[in-house]
Amino acid sequence: RELFVLPQCAAAGDQSPHYVWRSRAEQIMAKRRGLSSRQEIARRIADAVEDGAAIAGKHIETRPVFRHAAARLDLPAHSEATMPFHETDPLEGVEIHAIRLGDVVIATNPFELFIDYGMRMKARSPAVLTFVVQIACHNLGYLPTAEAVAGGGYSAEKFAVGPEGGQRLVEETLRLINGLWN
Known about the structure:
Layout: H1 23-33, H2 37-56, E1 66-73, E2 94-101, E3 104-108, E4 112-113, H3 115-124, E5 129-133, E6 142-143, H4 146-151, H5 163-179
Parallel strand pairs: 3-5, 4-6
Antiparallel strand pairs: 1-2, 2-3
Helix pairs in contact: 3-5
């Protein structure tokens, strides 16, 4: 009761919420547990929270470093952008944030960001743990990788910012994150 879990959505633009492989095995295990697919997801989240809380509870910092940085990026539009534009031109002044709390970083962006971009940020971040949070401050739709665009499919065909903008987002996010350590 004393623990608040802040739900955030990590980079997942090229991931299905449904089992694409092992679906039969997953269905059998959920049935054996007597759980619906939503209950199974909730069980996994609860197990992960309990595991993380047990470790975090032993390493509480009472005066962690707290820093915040934000930027607005102008990202190149995809030449065949098909996403509807909201409120203002979403490709000018795209808002991103980086928050440092001790040795943890939360980096936000307004896209349904493909996992590969999130992994690039995490791999190069100086933080012990980096959370990449998508669809924050706005929803500018999918941001696919060059490989996804070449492969086609819904999320790789309907987007306003393409792979060049994705790499720029990675570099600018890392610039913000690294600045929190200087």
